[in-house]
# Entry
Amino acid sequence: MRHAQVPTWSRPGIAWLALAGVLAAGGLAVGGASVLGGAAAVAPSGALALDWQPDLALVQPWRWWTGALVHGSAAHLALNLAGTLLVALLGMAAQVPARLALAWLLAWPLTQGGWLLGPSLAHFHGLSGVLHAGVAIVGLHLLWPRRGTRVLPGLLLLAGLTVKLALEQPFGPVLRAAPELGIAIAPWSHFSGTVAGLLCAALVAAAAATAQRVGND
# Structure
């Protein structure tokens, strides 16, 4: 009997890598243009037409996605592209299943949406919150429902993420100066991304477990 071939995209890590590629390509395309034009470009095709603005979130819904792709400086873009590569490799090493790539995809707009519940900020841009969501998803994947040798790496990953968030004080000042990047960073985005990643990962994993139980009945 011949077994059905497993689609390439459903193999562990492949969908995750593809999504990381989309984020990197989008960051290069949109972020590169915003850096060249200046993060405060006023032209309709400039950063102000794409960055996250809570007041326009409902009437211009593309901002839920494009806000993460706009960047304020070349250093800001380079750092987030390096971070995207790191998260991509992390997911590949952890053999993240396709369903958790879906969780990361869902966390992408929800990371920006977290600003609707957080401190007031008229404009926001950058991939870092979405990258924090990816790290949180990988950490949860290593812990749940797996056992054995993957538990410790998962604990260390989530513990490190928790310490980083605590040091950044997301409930403190809205912006923190980062002169080396030529921008100010917004710790709330990192917190929002982490929460979005954990929630989406738990939701997708629970849905998969429910579907499996129903299939076994």
